[in-house]
Amino acid sequence: MSDIKLTREQKREEKKYFKEHTTHIKLTPGDIIFNIINYAFFIVFTISCIFPFYYLFINTISDNELVTKGAITLLPKGLTISNYIQMGKVNDLWNSVLITFLRTFIGTALMVFISALAGYLVTKKEMWHRQFWYRFLVITMYFNAGLIPWYLNMSTLGLTDTFAAYIIPGIVSPYNIILVKTYIESIPGEIEESAYMDGASYWTIFRKIIWPLSKPILATIAIFGAVGHWNSFQDSLILNANSPQLFTLQHRLYIYLQKSSNISAMVQSGISSADTTAIAGQMNTKIIQYTISMVTIIPILCVYPFMQRYFEKGLMLGAVKG
Predict the structure, then answer these.
(1) Residue range(s) of every CATH 1.10.3720.10 domain in the chain
(2) What is the pLDDT of residues 238-272, one digit of tens each?
(3) What is the distance of C-alpha 310 from the center of its chain?
(4) Which residue, of 86, 229, 277, 317, has the greatest Cβ tally within 10 A?
(5) CB 291 within 8 A of CB 60
(6) pLDDT digits over 86-134, tens only?
(7) Is CATH 3.30.70.1050 what the domain over 84-317 is classified as, yes or no?
(8) DSSP alpha helices (H): ranges in the chain?
(9) Residue 196 near residue 287, CB atoms below 8 Å
């Protein structure tokens, strides 16, 4: 009990001390006006960013007739999840979801690993012609041959009508390698030197020291890679145009939006004629567009908040040096 009382008395003393020594800054009328305008601006900006997603969502869970009439503005009406159930019957949509998940997971994992390994290697002075390879890597960020040479190159390498077209071109990312390199250089060199003196190899140091300490920047580039893979559709549109089984979710959404005048084209051969008639009667073109758009957005919206705590720290620390 005496310890508890002592602790409580210490807390009271601490509160009293901070209360006496805390400096209260008196705001001028100009400061108050500035704060009001500042908060108002960011509140409006936040609402303007969130509202499009919110508007899409409330239209997908509202009564379809009310959505068609444009009666949905701020709140959903006639709550229903039938739109998502009906879209779940589209076989080619689920195949596109699977392809997109696979390319996002595999492509991001390989990109993060190669970026971490390459970023670590270019920090080693013992690397053969290190400055040349690093500068060569940076130069590739400033030159782009264009769409046609890119396609011819991919075609020559056999990266058309194949799943590898989604993975191999994005494994090496110069920008991400630079971020990782800069971050690793901020780690105290004494840690690595002590491990090296204990007999650890470069691979052991990378795996047991560099990789765990680099989690913030690795999580940051993982966000970059995952969002890029999830939203990409140009490679699917150009490289895999003849392989519908390899269409990504964004490519499928693009096709649906292009075929907005034909409901039957929205629900492909995976649905029977009876199901097609039912869906066409329950979902018009606008509702299908809204629902598919939400299906493509929701996964990233769910993942990003869990990664955000690493994002700012990793990006700032990785950008301290050049």
Answers:
(1) 84-317
(2) 998 888 889 988 888 777 777 654 544 444 444 44
(3) 13
(4) 229
(5) yes
(6) 777 766 778 888 899 999 999 999 999 999 999 999 888 888 888 888 8
(7) no
(8) 2-21, 29-60, 64-69, 82-87, 91-121, 130-139, 147-156, 174-185, 189-197, 202-205, 211-213, 215-231, 234-239, 249-258, 263-266, 273-282, 285-317
(9) no
